[in-house]
Specification:
Blueprint lengths: L2 H7 L6 E5 L10 H11 L4 E5 L18 E5 L5 H5 L25 H12 L5 E3 L1 H6 L4 E3 L4 E3 L2 H5 L3 E3 L4 H14 L5 H4 L6 E5 L10 E4 L2 H6 L2 H15 L3 E6 L2 E5 L8 H8 L16 H6 L2 E3 L1 E2 L9 H6 L4 E2 L2 H11 L8 E2 L1 E3 L9 E2 L20 E2 L2 H12 L6 E2 L7 H4 L3 H10 L4 E7 L3 H7 L4 H17 L5 E8 L6 H14 L7 E2 L7 H8 L14 H12 L1 H4 L5
The protein binds iron/sulfur cluster.
The site of iron/sulfur cluster has 10 residues, from loops.
Length: 563
């Protein structure tokens, strides 16, 4: 992060500068640390400008002009989501910043950082990455400006965008730029890398390759229904090996096919790199996210659920790739040697807790389903939760490990398939409270969310109660619930409220739906249709959304109002 550190390493110049909206924490849960270590392990000299001041270029330029390129990322969250609540009120906290206070990164950070790099280093290739760039790679609905925005590639004027998990694409970009030599034009040498988007034309697509034509930006602006068509088209492209094209006012964004997920061996190698798990020593204040994740272990990537509102699963992809048990165990042993080790592993999981080892017995590239788990679990979906339970028990038995908890979200429909896993989870690895995400109780709303049936949630509650009793533990389920989802009417919220009341549950927090860019649920919100094109009711105004939220939080005050 500093010139002094470069001197200590004997580096005269960087090959690559990564600019991030998060503080720098050398932990594999932080994307920039992960990619920095990955690129370093392949021989590149990588510097990180974390949360640089954005009104002048001196902080981003502190380590000098990098030889190959700069990568820009908003950080672990979309910067607008990080900065504003569901009612567009400013947030004052930021878990990825020293001291936990907001204000260390700009709105639309990917665009701002790209401008900053271009001002500091004219002509240097700029690569966009991270979840903000990934989800905004095509025309998208932006809730915060209530408008359809162009691909972030055009708005940022970057040279190329990496979507999804970026290891393969960024390494290929680094190699091509290194091999290209001085004077090579990025446009000429960077086209066609899997997992990237770039400005180009149909000529960039190999002859005979499958191509998805995404409705143009202009057609989406003039007809909101086209956003649904575009979102579904891109969703189909990312689960196949197709290319995609989208026109923006006579210019074309080309989407190369997605990068193949890292194999088990590659993931093992990546997670065995020498992460210190510490924030950079220059930080004086604690970073809240570090306290949460420092002693957590990522066991797998990808989520087969395909929930229509989730950006994480869209970013990581539907195909689950898992680390080996030996690699996870080696990381657990290494945690016990950390100077600040407390004896507790706070999580072993991924986007979902219980998909470690899951796979598809067919060819996922030929699959037309939007979710492997809904409306019912696909017969080709293979999971091994018995092995996961054994792995968790093995980790907990290692010397120096006193506790192990599972904090990642559990897919309760999957957990129902494995009595061994459900028993281990509830009896041994739940710390008094288990957070579950039924999201809603109404069948139609759950169908639009692509979530499992409410009956599955109720069945899992019975299992939870039985296993808690048999373990002699008093434990609670904390349900995640969502109001104002597209297709959800006030009557649906009242039905959910009645179910909670009958059970004696009073939710303290209910998430009001936020339409995230790039998601099918975001398209439903904007277009007012379901994926088949049928009109659905949408609570659109803040008053309507607040009213739905209030039906759960203040049932006495809102019962009987609304449609
Ligand atoms: S075939 Fe089934 S398990 Fe495989 S990707 Fe498709 S839905 Fe998922």
């Amino acid at each position: 992060m500093t010139r002094r550190e470069m001197d200590l390493l004997g580096w005269k110049e960087l090959d690559i500068l990564l600019v991030s909206g998060d503080a720098y924490v050398d932990h594999p849960s932080f994307g920039v640390a992960l990619l920095g270590r990955w690129l370093s392990s392949h021989g590149f000299k990588v510097g990180v400008a974390a949360q640089p001041k954005w009104d002048r270029p001196d902080e981003v330029a502190a380590m000098g002009r990098p030889k190959l390129f700069a990568g820009t990322s908003a950080g672990a969250l979309d910067s607008m989501l990080a900065h504003y609540t569901a009612f567009r009120k400013k947030r004052f906290d930021d878990a990825y910043t020293p001291g936990g206070l907001a204000g260390a990164r700009p709105n639309r950070a990917t665009i701002v950082y790209t401008g900053l790099v271009k001002a500091a280093f004219p002509g240097l290739p700029v690569v966009l990455g991270g979840i903000e760039a990934s989800m905004r790679r095509a025309s998208h609905f932006d809730f915060w400006s209530d408008a359809v925005r162009r691909s972030i590639l055009l708005d940022s004027k970057a040279d190329i965008l990496v979507y999804g998990m970026g290891e393969r694409a960024i390494l290929e970009i680094a190699r091509r730029l290194a091999d290209g030599g001085p004077g090579a034009k990025p446009r000429d040498i960077l086209s066609g890398i899997p997992g990237t988007a770039f400005m180009g034309s149909e000529r960039d697509i190999p002859e005979g390759a499958p191509v998805v034509r995404v409705p143009s930006h202009e057609s989406i602006v003039s007809d909101p229904r086209q956003l649904m068509a575009a979102t579904l088209a891109l969703e189909a492209q990312t689960r196949s090996n197709a290319w995609a094209l989208q026109e923006h006012g006579g210019r074309t964004v080309v989407f190369a096919p997605p990068a193949a997920p890292l194999s088990t061996e590659e993931l093992d190698r990546l997670y065995s790199l020498a992460f210190t798990r510490d924030p950079h020593p220059s930080y004086k204040e604690a970073i809240p996210a570090v306290e949460m994740i420092r002693f957590s272990i990522t066991s797998h990537r990808g989520c087969a659920g395909g929930c229509s509102f989730c950006s994480l699963a869209l970013h990581q992809g539907r195909r689950v790739s898992s680390r080996s048990a030996a690699s996870i165990e080696a990381e657990a042993r290494a945690l016990t040697r950390h100077p600040d080790w407390t004896g507790a592993i706070t999580d072993v999981g991924g986007p979902s807790a219980n998909m470690w080892g899951a796979s598809c017995s067919a060819d996922p590239a030929d699959c037309g389903r939007a979710s492997c788990l809904t409306p019912g679990i696909c017969p080709h979906f293979q999971d091994d939760q018995k092995a996961l339970a054994a792995l968790l028990r093995r980790l907990r038995s290692l010397p120096g490990i006193k506790h192990l908890r599972v904090a990642s979200g559990v897919r309760h429909d999957l957990a129902l398939r494995s009595p061994d896993y459900a028993s281990a989870l509830v009896g041994e690895f739940t710390g008094g409270q288990l957070k579950l995400a039924p999201e809603h109780s109404c069948a139609r709303v759950l169908e639009l969310m692509r979530k499992p049936s409410f009956a599955a949630f109720e069945r899992f509650l019975s299992v939870f109660e039985r296993e808690s009793r048999s373990a002699g533990k008093e434990q609670f389920v904390v349900p995640y619930l969502v109001s104002a989802f597209p297709g959800c009417a006030d009557a649906d919220m009242r039905a959910l409220s009645a179910w909670l009341k009958a059970r004696g549950w009073k939710p303290k927090q209910v998430q009001c739906f936020i339409p995230l860019p790039g998601t099918v649920a975001g398209a439903m919100f904007h277009a007012g249709i379901d994926p088949s094109g049928k009109p659905i009711p949408v609570a659109r105004t803040d008053a309507e959304r607040l009213r739905q939220n209030g039906i759960l939080l203040n049932p006495g005050r809102t019962q009987g109002r609304g449609p």
